[in-house]
Amino acid sequence: MATAPRDRLRYSNVAIVLHWAIAALILYNLASGLLRPLLPAGFFQFHVSAGITILLLSVVRVAWRLTHRPPPMLAMKGWERGLAHAVHFLLYAAMLIVPFSGWALVSAKPPAGSPGAAWSAAHPPASHDPAPSAKPPRPRGPTMIWAVVKLPLLAPVNTIGREAEGVPAQRALRARIETFHMLGGWAMLALVLLHVAGALKHQVLDRQRELARMGLG
Ligand code: HEM
Ligand code: HEM
């Protein structure tokens, strides 16, 4: 009973564990995605596995959030409360949409063994490699999640390229999804920065126990 008022100021342990597990994976995915050209190639290696894990954990987290009441918010101005709610909502949206767009991105290739796959291997995209003969097309296996589970591909995006005629349209779609995924990554970075700035403002400037709500301290 004595700890009740304090408990009411903290998120549940499930929410706290999910928050920090997802945050760590998102920071890795933002770094590995946005800094890909600057970092060693191996750093990107777990991007897809981490991203699918983010998607699954985020579905669990949203379900948890919808079925559990969060602790009442700290005292703050009306506009701060509104901004915090808006940023949290947009973060949840990005936690679902950005990894889903990544999944669509890796699905946008002709199904293995299809006529489209054979045509695609024989007709690499013009901009892809200035000297195609130098690099024979490498046969790519299925996309694996943590080297254990085969990632099912999203059929609507995948099967467009089943026949050779569909491959150019699929490539154009892939380019659009890639742009979307990249812009989603930048938007997510902006939201995370705003979110951390807000948390630190309440913790440091307003001298409130903000971080303790998410299990820190
Ligand atoms: C990197 C990715 C991150 C994501 C996607 C994220 C996402 C979220 C979301 C969606 C909430 C709202 C919880 C609710 O439903 O009420 C939240 C709360 C919170 N986050 Fe994060 N977060 C991230 C990183 C961080 C970091 C680095 C900090 C530490 C500075 C932090 C501190 C907090 C705190 C203190 C709360 C509780 C807010 C409140 O007072 O209600 N988060 N986070
Ligand atoms: C929250 C999760 C994720 C974030 C923040 C994220 C972020 C990014 C960013 C910023 C890029 C660089 C985009 C560019 O410059 O073109 C990228 C690339 C990429 N992402 Fe993600 N991503 C996430 C999840 C996923 C998932 C789940 C997958 C696949 C299942 C995925 C697959 C890819 C691929 C294949 C690329 C390379 C694109 C290319 O061919 O150039 N991502 N990601």
Automatic annotation (TrEMBL):
Membrane topology annotation: Multi-pass membrane protein
Membrane-traversing stretches: 12-31, 43-64, 85-106, 180-200
Main location: membrane
Needed co-factor(s): heme b
Pfam family, one: Ni_hydr_CYTB
Positions of the Cytochrome b561 bacterial/Ni-hydrogenase domain: 10-214
Keyword entries, A-Z: Cell membrane, Electron transport, Heme, Iron, Membrane, Metal-binding, Transmembrane, Transmembrane helix, Transport
Low complexity bias spans: 117-132
Location in the cell: Cell membrane
Region (Disordered): 117-139
PANTHER family the record matches: CYTOCHROME B561, CYTOCHROME B561 HOMOLOG 2
Record-stated family: Belongs to the cytochrome b561 family.
Protein name: Cytochrome b/b6 domain-containing protein
Lineage summary: Bacteria, Pseudomonadati, Pseudomonadota, Alphaproteobacteria, Sphingomonadales
